[in-house]
Specification:
Elements (H helix, E strand, L loop, with lengths): L3 E6 L5 E2 L10 H11 L4 H8 L11 E5 L3 H13 L17 E2 L16 H13 L4 E3 L9 H15 L4 H13 L1 E6 L8 H15 L6 E4 L8 H16 L6 E4 L3 H13 L4 E7 L6 H4 L2 H8 L2 E5 L19 H6 L1 H4 L2 H15 L3 H11 L3 E2 L6 H8 L8 H14 L12
Parallel strand pairs: 1-3, 4-5, 5-6, 6-7, 7-8, 8-9, 9-10, 10-11
Antiparallel strand pairs: 1-2
Helix pairs in contact: 1-2, 3-8, 4-5, 5-6, 7-8, 9-11, 14-15, 14-17
């Protein structure tokens, strides 16, 4: 899909968008054209399009002209004089495993509907009671930030359901200990730092909180619109300085771009806490391209999203029984050689009396990352929890690495992943 636009932006959110040149080659592109031309409804509609991070519209060429004088001036002043409005919580302990909430509200890939909310609330309660700290979502997961709204709702209900004061105290302590993490999408209209500060405030409101424990840039625009990148950096830095987010994180940054933003943030006295990338036995690029090594050098914790390769590592799918919907189409090339890896995983699982998903998740943990598998029901969550409290041996990790190499193919990388 090819989308080509020219945008003209003015300051103070006076957004004049004119499609002076371009071409639409698919119905999706035509819809995006309609969305962007309608300023009043663009957020919800394009948000629903962006629910699938690595399969949404590929931007082959984007031309922006915009004025950043106000943003640049704000950056200079806040970097030098702005005091952090509230004391930051240094949340270095993310736990061994987190919970990814992409499917909570996502209709396009995960077929979410509101009848699932009761079971999702049970998943949340069990996760908190079991000691999971990190709950990861994004403002693009579900229409109008549905996933964020659900997490905020579940947090409130968890505390309100307490029967007596002692239980309330215990539940409050557990809720206070969790880390709500969200990611801010660099939509085409978010091109000033003000727009990213506004996005952070809106996410905090959907959570029902004054601040967000971990705010992350969802992806870098370096690959297709490098001029927007500086506004992203300044915006999330300002959100941190103004106390809207307590810790800064990134997503889909490669080692080269990571070094650049680390230098920028260091100059402003802002630490980068985490980097979230696609990582699993079927997606070992962060380990092989220097991303993990760079994180280790810079003291940045690596969070592994899609650690089960969107279900391929659960053993449920095959050439004869592919994953439903979009996943089956996107990853059918992996299914034929996949049994090579699954057989080795089964051998390892038998030694530890564990399931295939538990082996896949423990692999990520053993590599020094924090995996954030999803769970749509309590059965899935309980299986995920069986990945903690034990470790694969070094020889088992080597055997799994070898088996992964023999597969010869990997799941597709996010199109916004940078070098």
């Amino acid at each position: 899909m090819v989308v080509l636009f020219r945008f003209s932006f003015k300051e103070n959110y006076d957004l004049n968008i004119s499609r002076k040149e371009g071409m639409m080659t698919t119905k999706s592109a035509l819809l995006i054209d309609k969305v962007i031309s309608n300023q009043n409804s663009n957020t919800n509609k394009l948000s629903s399009l962006c629910q699938r991070r690595d399969l949404i519209v590929g931007v082959s060429s984007t031309a922006f002209s915009f004025v950043l004088s106000q943003s640049t001036a704000a950056e200079a002043s806040t970097g030098a004089t702005n005091k952090v409005k509230n004391e930051k919580k240094k949340r270095s302990d993310l736990g061994e495993i987190g919970l990814g909430c992409w499917s909570w509200g996502n209709e396009f890939v995960w077929q979410y509907d509101e009848t699932m909310d009761y079971e999702l609330s049970r998943v949340f309660d069990l996760a908190v009671d079991s000691g999971i700290k990190l709950f990861d979502t994004a403002d693009s997961y579900g229409a109008d930030g549905k996933s964020e709204r659900l997490l905020g709702k579940f947090c409130r209900e968890y505390y309100d359901d307490a029967n007596d004061n002692d239980e309330k105290k215990k539940k409050k302590s557990r809720i206070d200990d969790i880390i709500l993490a969200t990611k801010f999408a660099p939509y085409p209209w978010r091109i000033t730092s003000d727009s990213f500060v506004k996005a952070a405030k809106e996410s905090a409101n959907r959570f029902g909180r004054e601040s967000i424990e971990l705010g992350q840039l969802h992806w870098s625009t370096e690959n297709y619109q490098p001029l927007q990148e500086r506004a992203l950096w300044d915006g999330i830095a300002r959100a941190y300085e103004e106390g809207i987010i307590e810790n800064v994180g990134l997503s889909n940054y490669g080692p080269r771009q990571l070094q650049k933003i680390h230098k920028y943030m260091s100059n402003r006295g802002i630490p980068i806490a985490t980097l979230q990338v696609q990582y699993s036995l079927l997606s070992r690029f962060p380990e092989l391209n220097g991303t993990k090594e760079t994180c280790d050098e810079l003291g940045i914790k690596l969070i592994a999203y899609s650690p089960l390769a969107l279900g391929l590592l659960t053993g449920k799918y095959s050439v004869e029984k592919p994953p439903p919907g979009l996943r089956g189409q996107a990853y059918k090339g992996v299914l034929k050689p996949l049994p090579i890896l699954l057989e080795t995983m089964k051998e390892v699982a038998a030694v530890h009396n564990k399931t295939l998903p538990q082996v896949a998740l423990n692999y990520c943990i053993s590599k020094g990352t924090v995996p954030i598998p999803g769970a749509k029901n309590t059965k899935q969550l309980k299986d995920n929890l069986g990945a903690v409290g034990w470790r694969l041996s070094n020889s088992e990790i080597i055997e799994l690495d070898k088996a992964a190499e023999k597969v010869g193919v990997s799941v597709s990388q996010n199109i916004f992943q940078t070098a």
